[in-house]
Amino acid sequence: MKKSLGLLFLFLITISGYSTAASVYTFTGEIIADNFSDNTGAIGDAGLAIGSTISYSFLVDTTSQGSWRANNGAVTTYNDTTTANETIDYFYVDLISGGLGEVDGGYFNGPSFVDEYNRGLDIISSTDPSDDWVSFLGGSANNLVQIYSGGISFVDWIIGTSPISALESTYDSTGASSVISSVLTLESVSPVPIPPALLLFGSGLLGLFGYSYRKRIN
After folding, report:
1. Domain of life, per the record (predicted)?
2. pTM for the structure as a whole
3. pLDDT digits (tens, 9 = 90+) for 136-174
4. What does the alpha-carbon distance between residue 143 and residue 153 come to, in Å, rounded to a whole number?
5. Where are the domains of the chain?
6. How far apart are CA 14 and CA 171, in angstroms?
7. Is the dihedral of CA 46, 51, 52, 53 positive or negative?
8. What whole-number distance in Å separates Cα of residue 190 and Cα of residue 27?
């Protein structure tokens, strides 16, 4: 009985972590003419052009630190800082959909180049709110996506927030690049769903707990 209660308690803690720690932020908007170029052909191949609708989704976990991983596997973690003028908070993000992807294997493939960015950034000014800054940085050195806006803090990024800017660049094996700028709206913020396997495990624990309880009272 005590063992069943312990497992059930552990399951409830795990469920709580899944339901509160991470969310998926989805942004949708329109490609604009600023900085637009398609020297790799990747934008045209994706059926996109100036005026096209574009969307990006990021997994966001504010309980974990932002980081980046090099092609050689080395991981660098960003450290939060506080000064007299501002607080800089780093947190984990992961680009999970959207983006052109690498073209022909990309160009920046040396061991020290970035294989994956997972950096969320929230700068809060203590003197002037117009200096606040939020950004998500995802992808890699070969396909970099940054979502950002100034004059606002992360806590104020709510559904419907607009305009939010995005800049994406991708490179082919020759070093040629394609660049997309877009103006986005935060369309949705969704909690990360609990994995089905974990739900099945929880159902089994509840059944075991119920059986143990009935056996005890009988």
Report:
1. Bacteria
2. 0.80
3. 999 999 999 999 999 999 999 999 999 999 999 999 999
4. 26
5. 22-191
6. 40
7. positive
8. 12
